[in-house]
Amino acid sequence: MASHMGDGAKEEFLRDFGEHYGYPNGPKSIDQIRATEFKRLQFQDLVYLDHAGATLYSDLQMESVFNDLTNNVYGNPHSQSDSSSATLDIVKNARLQVLDYCNASPKEYTCIFTSGATAALKLVGEAFPWNYSSSFMYTMENHNSVLGIREYALGHGAQAIAVDIDEDIHPGMTGETLSSKMSLHQVQRRNVAESLEGEPTGDVYNLFAFPSECNFSGLRFGLDLVNIIKEDSSKILGISSVCKNGQWMVLIDAAKGCATMPPDLSKYPADFVAVSFYKLFGYPTGLGALIVRNDAASLLKKTYFSGGTVNASIADIDFVKRREGIEEMFEDGTVSFLSIVSIRHGFKILSSLTVSAISRHVASLAFYTRKMLLAMRHGNGSSVCILYGHHNSKKLQHEMGPIISFNLKRPDGSWYGYREVEKLASLSNIQLRTGCFCNPGACAKYLGLSHLDLISNTEAGHVCWDDHDIINGKPVGAVRVSFGYMSTYEDAKKFVDFVGSSFVSPQNHIDHGNQMKGLENGFVDTGYYLKSITIYPIKSCGGFSARSWPLSSNGLTYDRQWVLKSPTGEILTQKKVPEMGFVSTLIDLSQGILFVESPRCKERLQITLESNVYEDAIEDIELYGQRYEVYSYDNETNAWFSEAIGRTCSLLSSYLSLKKVCVI
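The chain above was modelled as a monomer; its predicted structure follows.
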């Protein structure tokens, strides 16, 4: 690894984590990997910390994919040509590669390719043999894609039970510790009349679902859960009268956890495992897999059939003979064979580094970042960061994945909004994620949100991806950073420095005698002074700073007066269109002009602040549950913004004049 003389902080980090960080025994060091395979991060001076959302593909990986596709001919695997036969062989080998990654024997398991992990989970929900005596049990910390299975269970009259397991028993749990450290929350049943008809006449099957790693907190669930539920379910679940009958099957959502710690199915024989490939190695998207135990697959009841899933069918009578191979029964239509061809190049990257080394590498970065965030204090001694999850261990935490979710507090104990953190991070070229991450159970659990809180927040207009981050003084989401195999110490350090410089307040020394005198004069010298004001004329685009600025009855004059709208009517935000962050703005009040620039556009755009309003240019829009009257601009202006952000859009502005009331 390269020398880092003069960088005392990194030298200390390497003393603590050098045997884990950077692939010291690998074919390339982390510095070499970043310099040769992720040059785009350096060119853009970008810190990417959303690997739980999607990790990054490497240059080498994509070069291999491109060379593969441009030097070979791959035909539809349902055809009989030589090119199609070659494709079929590669698809078969890809299935084996997926099974091998999770140490699953092809004699016991089959890989079914899907359009993603969500489609894999949906397939289980649709085809599972539910009846009114079945139970669907799931841990609180599950993605919405798992919670959606509940609709199938309840629709068949089955019962649904949410399970809250104390996180301090992961890993190494036993049946005894689990039974004393879990609480069950039964969801109201549907089709109750049908469920009261009596005992079931056939076999009863139940499903238990949990993530290998929580995408909110990073908690890694002990895979002992698989064996405990499958072997000791009657003893463990006997504490509740809601779980009496039938055989238990286990589903693992490994979409997040697989990237750094895939489940070992030879030790923990789950019945179903959902996998996402872009979370493993960045590319391809739109491809996932369901790893299914062969004996469990035989119980699934599939209704729909399509091309590729039948041996024969007759158009004008009720006759169909389905294929008998497991993957043949469940892969409707032609699989995404070019995407499947590509995954071997991603697996080659992971194999060269080894998953064990990747896990240690990202763990070192996560541990360092947690440690630094927890150590931050305001000048008055109060904590800056509130972290969610189990973060008390002084060792590399194998029970925690490379995810850190947190919120930030001001010196007075009030919260910084997570959207404020995200916007400032974006201006510093740091990409992270905020919100609840489609994990409502974990979000409510860690943020202490009651059912009443959640319902009232929704009724108040709060929805996913909006800007409502603090409601009634409480955060309704969190900030999340996550690391991938190509993340570096420098990424973590820049993020830690960003939090320290942006959100940590120094000690405030106040002379209380002068403070009382100031109160008499109507002015208090608190020791703070306003250094600058930042105005963001166009919502989600770059702002500019000023030493003083006029106020209106709505706040800073011209602040967020303009928005960009998609052709479908959606108001665009930087969260969905990151390119908006590269659009810079400046207002010259003396000229009455808004200047707008973009690296994608040659000309600087000028917009007159006080434009004449024409009746036919006025329209209504809805933004976060409120109606606004706005006016639109000409085609030339809209074309400029479309080029600037790389997608078709139009500029809208409030046409009501803003009365100036004072200047700060």
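Residues 355-375 form the longest helix (21 residues).
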